[in-house]
Amino acid sequence: MDADYLPYHPAPRKPAYTPPPGAVDAHCHVFGPGDRFPYAPARKYTPCDAPKETLFALRDHLGFARNVIVQATCHGTDNRALVDALRASDGLARGVASVGPDITTDALRDLHEAGVRGVRFNFVKRLVDATPREVFLGIAERIATFGWHIVVYFEAPDLEGLIPFLKQLPTVVVVDHMGRPDIARGAEHPGFQRFVALMEELPTLWSKVSCPERLSLEGPATGYADVVPFARTLVDRFTDRVLWGTDWPHPNMTSHMPDDGALVDVIPRIATDAAKQKALLVDNPMRLYWSA
């Protein structure tokens, strides 16, 4: 583990909010254990181990039924830790993998059988080296034949330049963490409204309304209140195209390590009635990850 890396919260509280039956934590990770699943040599950071057993115990503690586990950059395109967790989940987890352009069709088929239903394209420069967009487009064409979708991770200043690329992708596209808007500028700022307008234009574009702990300037003292208007806007306007997740074990947090119970308690503030909560936590992730 890097000397300045913050480990996950050791004892998150039981949330006051009770998720609906069948709720899905649709964005979380597993790391290692490093002695069994080594971290990628070209990684930008070395996390603490965060094994599947701890993730599944957290799922139960928070009142969720299922997980969507997303491959993180510290494991590169070696998806063995992800696949191990999926196979151990008894069908209660699905995965989003990271793959290279040289992956074989048989390897993609093996990932599908393990429970992978998407791939992640990362554009955050501090986490990954740049990949030519032609490479991503080639991968997108291949995974589309399996009915998978694409998860994209970028920061708000990069959105404008990515729009032509996003429009070329042949599958459902899920944007991580609302495209990391600049919270200081408010939800009405043209930067965030560009993202809202893109979701209006592209019916295949979804968003995770997750990670207030990464985006907030106010922090946990206000329950991340400054992020709520952004997430509520997307839930209200695109109720059938939003997902939510803890982001456990919260890699590369520097300001604080969030209490996952407190993160769950943000949900009723962004999805303000039972129908929206069920769409966000049950109907949407089940349709995207468990329909086939």
Structural write-up:
The protein has 292 residues and is of the alpha/beta class. The chain has one domain: Metal-dependent hydrolases (TIM Barrel). 35% of the residues lie in helices and 12% in strands. The protein contains eleven helices and eight strands. It has helices at 52-62, 80-88, 105-114, 133-144, 159-168, 190-201, 212-215, 228-237, 260-264, 267-270, 274-289, and strands spanning 24-28, 66-70, 93-97, 116-122, 149-153, 173-175, 205-208, 242-243. Strands 1-2-3-4-5-6-7-8 form an eight-stranded parallel sheet, with helices on both faces. Helix 6 links the parallel strand 6 and strand 7 (205-208).
What is the annotated CATH architecture? Alpha-Beta Barrel
Give the helix level as a range of percent: 25-40%
Contiguous runs where pLDDT drops below 50 for at least 5 residues: none
- Broad shape: globular
Beta strand count: 8
- Strand order within the widest sheet? 1-2-3-4-5-6-7-8
- Roughly how many Å apart are the termini? 37 Å
| Fourth-tier CATH superfamily name | Metal-dependent hydrolases
Radius of gyration: 18 Å
Number of domains: 1
Features:
single chain, 292 residues, alpha/beta, TIM Barrel, eight-stranded parallel beta sheet, 12% strand
Chain-wise SSE layout:
Layout (H helix, E strand, L loop, with lengths): L23 E5 L23 H11 L3 E5 L9 H9 L4 E5 L7 H10 L1 E7 L10 H12 L4 E5 L5 H10 L4 E3 L14 H12 L3 E4 L3 H4 L12 H10 L4 E2 L16 H5 L2 H4 L3 H16 L3
Parallel strand pairs: 1-2, 2-3, 3-4, 4-5, 5-6, 6-7, 7-8
Organism: Azospirillum oleiclasticum
Protein name: Amidohydrolase family protein
InterPro entries: Amidohydro-rel (IPR006680), Aro_Compnd_Degr_Hydrolases (IPR052358), GLI/LigI (IPR047874), Metal_Hydrolase (IPR032466)
